[in-house]
Amino acid sequence: MKALTARQEEILGFLRDRIKADGLAPTRAELAHAFAMNVNAADKHLQALARKGALLMMPGTARGIRLPEEAGLPLVGRIAAGQPILATESILGHYPVDPRLFQPHADYLLQVQGLSMRDVGILDGDWIAVHRTASAQSGQIVVARLDDEVTLKRLELGKQQIILHAENPAFAPIIVDAKRHNFAIEGIYVGLMRRP
Fold it and tell me: Percentage of residues in the chain with pLDDT exceeding 70?
């Protein structure tokens, strides 16, 4: 987070106190009233705080202010640990998980579907934490996109080809043909959460 001005610190403190006391953020009008300013000035302060990473703005809601420590990580859909599945990237919810628990930090969560990564302890229904990146090293577990489908596999970068390996002998490796497939790395696996 970038350094804040004294006024921004004061506004951020007010937001934290109100969220803690009321369970929800104040409206822009309430913020403006508390600091004897107009709504446009309050909105400009909020936008500046958002640019500096001190808060998140949820568009289309009057109380759409979230503190990063509250927002957690978004669950953005499912990923196949088996045959690739059609990518669905709608946010299914935010969960109070600190992204800094993972190295490198996590950007989002995906729910695993299938058992191709079973032998490294990633099971059907698990949630995986993913660090968003377009590059990865051979041997890393990656979220890979093949055309319009995504899958979770161990990456092997060969001189002539890319191979996506399952961690379960019941699943054959996927050999990526760059002439036939649109291939991209979406991120790398950085951790696991198993829900009871």
Answer: 90
147 and 179 belong to one structural domain: yes
Provide the domain limits for residue 30: 6-68
The residues, any chain, with a CB within 8 Å of residue 6's CB and separated by 6 or more, are none
Peptide bond into 104 cis (omega under 30): yes
The pLDDT of residue 91 is 64
Do 88 and 175 fall into the same domain?
Answer: yes
Residue 135: count of CB within 10 angstroms of its CB = 8
Catalytic residue set: 116, 153
Residues 47 and 60 in one domain: yes
Per residue in 63-99, pLDDT (tens digit) is: 878 777 666 787 887 888 766 554 545 567 677 788 8
What is the separation, in whole angstroms, between the first and last Cα of the chain? 34
